[in-house]
Amino acid sequence: MCNRYPFSAEQNGSQNGSLTAALHSGAVCSIVRRSSTALRTVCASIGRIMTRASTQFCVVALAIGLTLAAPPALADGEPAAERTGVVAFEAESGLYVIDANGGTPRKIPGTKPGDGNPVWSPDGRLLSFERERQGNWDVYVMSADGSGQRRLTFSPMDDDFARWAPDGRSLVFQSTRRRSFDRVDVYAIRVSTGAARRVTPDGEYPDWAPDMRIIFAHAGDFFTVRPYGLDRRPLASQPPGSALAALVSNDGQKIAYIRYDDDGLFVAQIDGSEPRRLTTSPSVDNDPVWSPDDKWVAFDRGDSLRDIYVVREDGSELTRLTHLRTACCPDWRP
Q1: Count of alpha carbons within 13 Å of 144, Cβ hemisphere only?
Q2: CATH superfamily of 86-333
Q3: How confident is the model at residue 133 (pLDDT cuts 50, 70, 90)?
Q4: Which of 67, 182, 308, 321 gets the highest tally of CB atoms within 10 A of its CB?
Q5: Domains of the chain: which residue ranges?
Q6: 8 A C-beta contact, residue 304 and residue 3
Q7: What's the confidence (pLDDT) of residue 181?
């Protein structure tokens, strides 16, 4: 989840919003995962980047010198015929989809400003997403066309960053249910019943591997655990740097990941070996997700103003997909 604005690009007739208006509204953002290397290093020392409760801190940080301008625009690459499917993402006025080969973003009906982090179910029929309505974040599901919206979690604390299990029956998510924003645990929930249980304490940004193990980060390292909390263990080979979040490729062979101490994206084998840089960012690259064929990675780029980009798995053909300045948190379906 990233920057939120109380006005719509459709309303002002432009894809570019007014940062000044956002600052005056007092609602610049509700979370910044990675604002700058220096800021992330400070946040890492207390165990978590920033929570959605940190709006005031975000405003102050912006005021004292975080880069407010959008990153330099790249020359858009020619559409790649093999880049197929649909990318869902979060923007200022709700949730959107765009063809992975480019085009005009289309808003998902029934989604609202502040809805975020859309994630496709394995069969592409459903989307999970997050909504804040009573002072905390909860996990919802809906059909791909925006119908049938249903709330899954009802904790008075934050439940967020949900990811689908490979079988489509469950979601894994992080939660501050211990009533402390700097103590985050990993939970799983059955989509059909809403029955939730804690998988493991002290874990953030979980994702599933095809073998049904869950990978997550804690205190700068990556770990895996079985769905019922058994066999928690660190990756056999920890990538260098301070681990923040990893997304598993669809074939289960690799991870795309981000670090506290670097603004780019990285790729490694599923056991953490053979790490390599995927991007070098002029601002901050975040929220990597694999294409269905694992040949591309989609992500968002920017500091306070963000857009969706795609890059080949080998780091070539970096292409800007959106021009909204408020787009983040992509997820890709066939």
Answers
A1: 16
A2: TolB, C-terminal domain (2.120.10.30)
A3: confident
A4: 308
A5: 86-333
A6: yes
A7: 63
